[in-house]
Amino acid sequence: MTSELFRHLPEETLTRIPNRPLGRFSDFVVAELPASLTAIRKGRSDYSNLNELSHELIEGLTPDVMATATATQDNADLALLDLLIMDNALVRTTGPNPKLTALVDSLAAANDRPPIITYEDVVLTNPLYTDCRLHTNEEIGLSERDFYIAHREIEGDLDVLIDTSKEVIYILKQDDLNTIGNVAEMLHTAGLRWVDINARMELLWKAMPKEHFITIRDYFLSHPIRTTPDGEKYKGPSGAFTAKIPVFEILFAGETMKPEQFHYFKDNEMYFPRKGREEIQDALQYLEEGSTLTQLASLLGNPPILKTELDQFDHYLNQFRGMHYAGIKHQIPGAVEGNVSGSAGEVKVGQFLKGRMIKHTS
């Protein structure tokens, strides 16, 4: 799929297999809202039409409709995404709808997550290949879809790296030098996933039109109205809140990470995917037991064949972060200099990104 990202034709349209838990409300969010927002953005329409129609649709979300729509966890997650897409649109145009706000609050609380659109929503819950939820349409909408797909595919490759890391850790804990050759081969094969990951990272800033990203980014910014219990604005759906990179990094060489990275997980826990929060805690247990890949390799005397593969992991991880830095610098002028905040709320974006480019192997 990587080679197909951001290569769509202007006349290309999305093929859909409808999955609409909230009926007419979901239909509107998927099929009509992006065009409505485009018309407003381009000055072809004012807010009144969206305000009237959204009010009518929200009033149709009766208790019976909500109960049916949220009968299963998958449907509940998708129904909440539809509510959040609408909320995200309204608060940035016509203003919040009290009933919609109450529905979002109730469903979010019942599902252990914040009442704002998150990385988990747009990248993981979103049915990207069948009935994707978007804020934009036409060419920009296709770029928005590809932006999410690139992140989804990166998540899949990182899952392979994480699973292989755990397998290797189990083998290394047997303290058998006869297995080192096989372990090195496992790491080498898994490491090739980094080639695909970094290719997607490069596409995200070299192939995605900057003007498309700037338009889409407006919907990723901190929520303009809602605040946390501490009085701070809720943060937007940033890639900083993927759990896969920190899980991999902890399993790989968590003992080399900076204290502020662990503080970041704790301070921003609610923004990470729900399953990802559990995965981070699981990875931290490996670190606490002294069972990261680099710790176990050291105990075995850092066999050269093993060290070569771990050095390659280190190279790929920092290459990934370097591409992320280059992408932010290209797509969001002024961000790395600290003149523009990131969607995760970072004020000093460049410092935040560079601070994670560290040497994990000696």
From TrEMBL:
Gene3D superfamilies associated with the record: 1.20.58.480
GO MF term list: heme binding; metal ion binding
GO biological process: L-tryptophan catabolic process to kynurenine
Superkingdom field: Bacteria
InterPro entries: Trp/Indoleamine_2_3_dOase-like
Name listed for the protein in its UniProt record: Uncharacterized protein
